[in-house]
Write a structure and sequence with these properties.
- The chain has five domains: 65 residues, no CATH class; 175 residues, Nucleotidyltransferase, domain 5 (2-Layer Sandwich); 79 residues; 117 residues, no CATH class; 32 residues, no CATH class.
- It has 25 helices and 13 strands.
- The chain has a seven-stranded mixed sheet with strand order 1-2-5-4-3-6-7, with helices on both faces. A four-stranded antiparallel sheet has the order 8-9-10-11. It has a two-stranded antiparallel sheet with strand order 12-13.
- The protein is globular and about 100 Å long.
Length: 608
């Protein structure tokens, strides 16, 4: 009674078999939606009829997967973490529940993250992320820079309130996991976070993100200055200058305020009061303070992880997706590390010290050092040199930024430059290279090679590159995936040869029939339950000891998301197409109902 062309769509003929179930779960782990997974599976098997089910069947399977843990995902996540901790592989976590046994805070880090923190944890960026799970738990990752200058994750926490108590708990547990607090922490201007850092990490320099502050300038200045390019240039010269001492900055700031009549502006006065927390002049002497001036690295990493995380995911799925993103981040690190060990950058000079820098630093960091060496050889010169006790004082003239004082202390072989680039970023400045050249040095002195910027073979000499390639990635020794890989490789060998394809097909049918007779038959319902248990680590408990949280109300949630600045609103508005207003007869972004014109003009819009 049903045409043969559509018989495969009948419910009795549709079935999501175990291989398809494994495929869908793999897609879920990679944050690939069910319909995209269905279309991709169709490409693998050749046509829709061969899939054996419909896109709705894929969607229903994902729905069942998410419903499976409903009400128990917090308990199951903690069970997963306890199991990982008992394995003794260095995984660490802390959590806290409220009076109703609902999870309210949790933080975790694996052994690789702890090791990375010991290598690259001088400065840490901390920025909250929203819309990453069904409970709107606030994801708060700790981010640093690796030896290639790229994002690297140290730990991640989930909290239900953005208050000082929650932030203080996260900071305290982070220090327990890592063993020490970072020298520098950069965040936005959240008052609760400011209070938490001051009370918890007393020895850590807390720095505000300059971008979050400067993005507000356009809406805080009077209307007369919003389109004043001269003011913007003058403001940027004062605020972003790394070479000024604090006293020079204060003088320049006061002159700027007086020149543009901003001395009575409350916002600028408040920012001046907090100047030691965001102006570069106050971080000139802080070791590695140049790693971060904004939270852009955190926001970049957050954006990266959001590609792996579904906003409707439960806590176990959130953790699984986060691990997928972490694996991708670490794989990228391995790729860049391999390129560092196998490729040599192009030289810009004939100096031996440049070749020495190329052998020591990672390729990305070497580019910055190479620019300093090249600029030193072309645009810097010693204008004056004199002795002062054990010191040799060099006055080095830079044709861009003026004169700088470089002190060479002979007994200790110390070279100290007034620009403080080495202190801020850990790489020698152009003025130091001028003095190195004068001292006839063919290599950078070891004391001025900061280990965190070195190639991996120098950074971790006890570990081979092969160990790096294995480090931090999930085991791919699962036999099922190895079998699939062998089958895929075999198909590649016979592809294009119909005779060999037929032979392979017949052999696979025989193998399938053989193992069907050996093994116990597993129907799709049984396999689904087993796969769900494997995915979540255990079946849902009858009486959970920890319950999932209520939906969190994040900042800006009442306004439909994060509050946007006037500049952001203007940018969004400018991207919208213009339309004809019937009242003012112009092509604008408003219409006749909200037109600011009181009376319609007599002239009409020209045909052009």
């Amino acid at each position: 009674m049903v045409p043969e062309a559509t018989r495969h769509l009948m419910s009795n003929n549709r079935n999501v078999d175990e291989f398809q179930q494994i495929f869908i779960i793999s897609a879920v782990k990679a944050n690939i939606g069910p319909m995209r997974a269905f279309r991709f599976f169709r490409e693998i098997v050749g046509d829709y009829k061969s899939v054996g089910c419909t896109g709705n069947d894929f969607k229903n399977f994902v729905r069942d997967l998410k419903v499976y843990s409903f009400g128990s995902d917090a308990h199951m996540l903690l069970e997963t973490f306890n199991n990982k901790q008992q394995l003794g592989d260095g995984f660490k976590f802390f959590h806290e529940v409220d009076d109703e046994k609902k999870l309210c805070r949790i933080i975790w880090a694996d052994d690789v993250s702890v090791k990375n923190y010991k290598l690259f944890g001088e400065a840490v960026s901390f920025d909250a992320t929203y819309n990453t799970n069904r409970y709107k738990f606030i994801l708060t990752p700790f981010t640093g820079k690796d030896n290639h200058g790229r994002c690297i994750s140290f730990a991640v926490a989930l909290i239900n309130h953005e208050d000082s108590e929650s932030y203080a708990w996260v900071l305290e547990k982070f220090e327990l996991i890592m063993g020490n607090a970072p020298r520098i922490l950069i965040t936005d201007q959240d008052p609760g976070l400011k209070k938490a850092v001051a009370s918890t990490w007393k020895e850590t320099r807390h720095r505000f993100c300059m971008w979050h502050i400067n993005i507000k300038v356009a809406e805080k200045v009077p209307q007369r200055l919003r389109d004043d390019s001269d003011f913007k240039l003058a403001y940027d010269r004062v605020v972003w200058n790394d070479n000024d001492e604090p006293e020079v900055f204060e003088e320049n700031w006061n002159n700027l305020m007086e020149e543009y009549d901003l001395t009575s502006n409350k916002w600028f006065s408040d920012m001046y009061q907090d100047r030691s927390m965001w102006i570069p002049a106050y971080f000139r002497d802080v070791h590695m303070s140049g790693l971060f001036r904004t939270t852009s690295m955190s926001e970049s990493k957050n954006s990266f992880f959001k590609r792996f995380i579904d906003k409707n995911s439960d806590l176990v799925l959130l953790y699984t997706n986060f691990c997928s993103g972490l694996d991708a981040q670490r794989y990228n690190y391995k790729e860049v590390t391999h390129a560092d060990e196998t490729r040599s950058p192009r030289m810009m000079t004939n100096l031996d010290i440049e070749r020495n820098a190329a052998a020591v630093y990672t390729n990305s960091v070497f580019k910055d050092v190479q620019e300093q060496i090249d600029h030193a050889s072309k645009a810097c010169a010693i204008r004056k040199m004199y002795s002062q006790g054990d010191e040799e004082i060099y006055v080095v003239e830079d044709n861009i930024d003026g004169e700088f004082i470089v002190r060479y202390v002979r007994p200790q072989d110390d070279v100290l430059c007034s620009c403080n680039l080495f202190t801020r970023k850990g790489t020698p400045c152009m003025h130091m290279f001028v003095v190195f050249r004068n001292l006839k040095l063919d290599a950078i002195p070891p004391k001025y090679i900061v280990r965190r910027w070195c190639k991996f073979s120098l950074l971790c000499p006890d570990e081979s590159l092969e160990e790096v390639r294995k480090e931090g990635s999930k085991s791919t020794s699962n036999l099922e995936f190895r079998i699939f890989k062998v089958v895929s490789e075999t198909i590649g060998c016979v592809r294009g040869n119909h005779e060999l394809c037929d032979q392979l097909y017949d052999n696979l049918i025989q193998v399938r029939d053989k193992f069907t007779n050996f093994g116990a038959y597993v129907n799709s319902t049984t396999s689904k339950s087993r796969l769900f248990n494997e995915f979540y680590g255990s079946p849902p408990p009858e009486s959970p000891s920890v319950f999932p949280p209520d939906i969190v109300k994040t900042k800006g949630s009442g306004a439909g998301g994060r509050r946007k600045s006037e500049k952001e609103k203007a940018i969004i508005l400018a991207q919208k197409p213009l339309r004809l207003c019937r009242k003012c007869k112009k092509r604008v972004h408003h219409d006749s109902r909200n037109c600011p014109t009181k009376e319609a003009p007599t002239e009409t819009l020209s045909s052009s």
